[in-house]
Amino acid sequence: MYTGKTLRECLKDAAAQGTAIGHFNISNLEALHGIYQAARKADVPVIIGVSEGEEAFVGLEEAVALVSTLRNRDQYPIFLNADHHGSFESVKRCIDAGFDAVIIDAAKLPFDENAALTLQCVEYARAVTAQTGRDILVEAELGYIGSGSNIKDKIPDGAGVKTDPEEAKKFVTETGVDLLAPSIGSIHGIIKSGKPHIDAELTKHISGMTGVPLVLHGGSGLRDEDFTNAIRAGVRIVHINSEIRLAYRDALKVALEAHPDEIAPAKLLQPAVDAIAEVVYQRLMLFTNKA
Ligand code: G3H
Ligand code: ZN
Predict the structure, then answer these.
(1) Ligand 1 touching residue 149 (CB < 6 A)
(2) Does 263 map to a domain?
(3) pLDDT at position 76, please?
(4) How far is the CA of 123 from the centre of ligand 2 (A)?
(5) Distant-in-sequence, close-in-space partners of 18: CB < 8 Å, separation ≥ 6
(6) Does ligand 1 lie within 6 Å of residue 188's CB atom?
(7) Pick from 40, 95, 116, 217: most CB atoms within 10 A?
(8) How far, in Å, from the CA of 242 to the mean position of ligand 2?
(9) Domain limits for position 67
(10) The pTM of the whole model exceeds 0.90
(11) Number of domains the chain contains
């Protein structure tokens, strides 16, 4: 059994140090290996995320087993998050299965419906925490930042409308949510036409008004200074997914083309693990002011 710091404690450390914890999505074991190797090399806590689609591919219980095996074996602060889950039922399934954190993604709903659904998830997480002693964190989103960790030509219609700090305060007060993902300039995915800058002033304002750790989604393709400005302004978790997917795809393509007669997955996929580890390591160094 893991006896080290909880995710909440790691977030407190990050706030005290002025750093952020990296959150990286996985669809397979190669990504988990790459991310974990990078976190260990950087010697920092790390969060593994699975969206509903990634979770269906990896397996819900399998994801829990993989992450908890590493955490217990190595006594290492690696945590599992249910990324962008759209219903109470899917959030509940993840809490019941042993996830450390969940994101109820109801940002597309009107404020009151988003708040009501978030509150339902928070109350369930608190009840399970009271019963089991597991400290489960709940995150919600306010302001639509697009969806999908893929390559897009341009910012999708309707995405990128920034979160109002007053609304953010009301939302956190009404729901008691642990973490908030506001819309502060970023958009999910790699955008060929470029990403807007992070609005650091707004981030600081929302951080001050809400008092909860903020989460930056859509990290892929942001400039280094956007990450550092966001972290300085109160972001404590940064999500990266598309960059990992791209590194995996490109490294695998090169390996397949270079070795047309190779059929051993371990040989073909090792470069993909290494490529993911490199991307993640660079990001972790930046998030922890070591770059
Ligand atoms: O929840 C996942 C992320 O927000 C990933 O965004 O694909 O732009 O890195 P990204
Ligand atoms: Zn996201």
Answers:
(1) yes
(2) no
(3) 98
(4) 23
(5) 231, 232, 289
(6) yes
(7) 217
(8) 10
(9) 7-246+278-287
(10) yes
(11) 1
Q: How far is the CA of 190 from the centre of ligand 2 (A)?
A: 12
Give the angle 290-250-61 at the CA atoms, nearest 5°.
Answer: 75
Residue 146's pLDDT is 85
* Helix residue spans in 18-159 (DSSP H): 29-42, 52-58, 60-74, 88-97, 111-132
**Residue 51: its pLDDT value, please?**
98
Q: Are 211 and 177 in contact (CB under 8 A)?
A: no
pLDDT of res. 131? 98
What is the token pair recorded at 254? 């090169």
Tell me the CA distances in angstroms from 186 to 23, 242, 262, one per residue in order.
Answer: 15, 13, 40
| Active centre residues (catalytic) | 83
Output the six-digit token pair for 97. 């299965």
pLDDT at 158: 80
Q: Which CATH number do you get for residue 220?
A: 3.20.20.70
Residue 4 gets which letter from DSSP?
S
The predicted model gives 28-39 an average pLDDT of 98
* Residue 102, beta-bridge partner list: 82, 138
d(CA 92, CA 271): 36
Q: What does the DSSP assignment read for 137-184?
A: EEEEEES-----SSEESSPPTTTTPPPPHHHHHHHHHHH--SEEEE-S
What confidence score (pLDDT) does residue 94 get?
98
The answer to whether 194 touches 223, Cβ cutoff 8 Å, is no
**Average pLDDT of the chain to the nearest whole number:** 97
Q: Is residue 268 part of a domain?
A: no
